[in-house]
Amino acid sequence: MTERVAVVTGGGRGIGRAICRALAADRRVIAVGDLRPAEAAETVGAIEADGGRAIAVELDVTDTDSVRTGLFQVADELGPVEVLVNCAGWDELMPFLETDEAFWDRIIELNYKGVLRTTHACLPSMIEAGFGRIVNIGSDAGRVGSSLEAVYSGAKGAVIAFTKTIAREVARTGITANTVCPGPTATPLLDEIVEASADGDKVIGAMARAVPMKRIGQPEEVASAVAYLASESAGFITGQTLSVSGGLTMA
Question: 51 partner at 20 to 30 Å CA-CA among 69, 156, 160, 161?
Fold first, then answer.
């Protein structure tokens, strides 16, 4: 596997950390992009303990200047970005009629426009190099909808459609773009969502029962799919949406 430069947003914990470690195992040099410097540093430490190379980059995907500054740092310290994984995301369970525009804006800025910002910044150098892998983390909520996640579902649906369009636009340039959609997965974010719910245990139980495999997924299971789509071996796969959800979505 060629030693290429990979940026993972939201790489400080959960699925993002697992993706960073999986890519590092494939000899990618990792830029761990995250709002939380301490958690990004922990991911870097884990990669280095495994024998890989990584740097931490403080990066806020809701801020264009922060994205540009962070990616300039990556280019300066590691070289041009060849693999981009957009994993940064956030949600809170809430009936749609209880949400307001401030909530909508936060969901859209982080889960959708963040993907636009990083992709817009990384694509030119990928096109110039004639190689690129873009893997966006969607959600099964964006494929089939999810109660109490109306705005999040819409944002993730937008990520899926955007990724397909980018895949078409750059198909002749050596760049692929695909979406990986996790189902319920054991992450710190899921823990926070459940803790904020009045019936946390019931929420987790309902999630597990809805999955044909009757369990919650693990971050490493999502990461393995991302690592494959980010590899040279996946060069003829683009514009695809892959669910890693124990059969929750079958299409």
Answer: 69
